[in-house]
């Protein structure tokens, strides 16, 4: 009877090791498959305060970019 218990215990340990390895392999492949970020937005610098911000949020006057209306208006008076 003791030999059967030992064989069942060995089989259980081998099964757990196999499951553990499969789980770790699944973790590695799922980390690789996570979507990579797309191209970052184009950034511009405010001509008044030098803040960098996405181009689609900036205000453009001629060749100058501004972060807000106040800086745009202040840039016109300089």
Description:
- The chain has 78 residues and is of the alpha+beta class.
- Helices cover 51% and strands 15% of the residues.
- The chain is built from two helices and four strands.
- The chain has helices spanning 2-32, 69-77, and strands at 43-45, 52-54, 59-61, 64-66.
- The strands form two sheets. A two-stranded antiparallel sheet has the order 1-2. A two-stranded antiparallel ribbon has the order 3-4.
- The radius of gyration is 31 Å and the shape is rod-shaped.
- The model has no long low-confidence stretch (mean pLDDT 88).
Produce a short descriptive summary.
This protein has 78 residues and is an alpha+beta fold.
Using brief descriptors, characterize the structure shown.
78 residues; alpha+beta; two-stranded antiparallel sheet
Secondary structure class reads alpha+beta
Alpha plus pi helix count? 2
Residue share in β-strands = 15-25%
What is the residue-averaged pLDDT? 88
What composes the largest sheet?
Answer: 2 strands, antiparallel
Low-confidence residue ranges: none
* Count of β-strands: 4
Question: Largest beta sheet: what is the strand line-up?
Answer: 1-2
| Oligomeric grouping of the chains | single chain
Please compute the radius of gyration using only Cα atoms.
Answer: 31 Å
The run of helices and strands is HEEEEH
Fold blueprint:
Elements: H1 2-32, E1 43-45, E2 52-54, E3 59-61, E4 64-66, H2 69-77
Antiparallel strand pairs: 1-2, 3-4
């Amino acid at each position: 009877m003791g030999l059967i218990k030992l064989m069942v215990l060995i089989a259980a340990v081998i099964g757990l090791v196999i499951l553990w390895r499969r789980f770790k392999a699944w973790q590695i492949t799922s980390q690789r498959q996570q979507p990579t970020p797309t191209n970052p937005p184009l950034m511009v610098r405010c001509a008044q305060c030098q803040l960098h911000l996405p181009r689609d949020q900036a205000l453009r006057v001629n060749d100058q970019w501004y972060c807000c209306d106040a800086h745009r208006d202040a840039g016109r008076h300089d």
